[in-house]
Write a structure and sequence with these properties.
Length: about 180
């Protein structure tokens, strides 16, 4: 962790931060949605698994979830890039602890948004295997956040992060808490 702290303290300009997001974005924005919408529904059919397609209902519910998820995901990425001089990719972490919205609603709004958006895609696909993949992705992200990222944030930001952690929900946003930040 000491070596990571040195790495995390390095300064990077906006261009390298944005360039780092391009390959990460390819996986998150193209490859995983393709698997959820195209590949896994085909696998469902090949395995004889039923589809849970209810026509337009899937599109309405899925579309609303995608919209909600994208708002949280893109909003938090923008905050990390432009207000905290970092990225969501651990290679170039944020230099400042973000505690204003959307990070005041929950500590992991990008992960919340990503999981919700993928859930919306899986619902549109009507695929059981797509839902299972979303569950696996959610589990892996939560394990990473709990086992690695929380320790790393406590090391880098100390008491400020620990105080923030005690008053801000982990993953499910709380919009009305009666407080104005920490």
């Amino acid at each position: 962790m000491k070596h990571y702290k040195k790495w995390a303290d390095r300064q990077h300009g906006l261009v390298p931060r944005v360039l780092l997001l391009i390959p990460a974005g390819g996986l998150i924005v193209i490859l995983i949605p393709y698997a959820l919408l195209v590949w896994l529904p085909r696998e469902d059919a090949g395995l004889g698994l039923p589809s849970f397609s209810f026509g337009v209902v899937n599109y309405i519910i899925g579309g609303l979830l995608i919209l909600l998820g994208l708002v949280f995901a893109w909003w938090s990425i923008g905050e990390q890039l432009f207000k905290a001089d970092g990225t969501p990719v651990p290679l170039i972490p944020t230099k400042k602890l973000l505690v204003a919205p959307p990070f005041s609603y929950c500590r992991n709004p990008m992960t919340f948004g990503t999981i919700v958006a993928y859930l919306g895609v899986a619902i549109i696909a009507g695929s059981i295997l797509s839902l299972l993949l979303v569950g696996v992705i959610a589990l892996l992200l939560i394990l990473y956040l709990k086992k690695i990222e929380e320790k790393e944030l406590a090391m880098r930001f100390g008491k400020e992060y620990l105080d923030y952690k005690t008053v801000t929900p982990f993953m499910i946003p709380r919009f009305f808490s009666g407080r104005k930040g920490i």
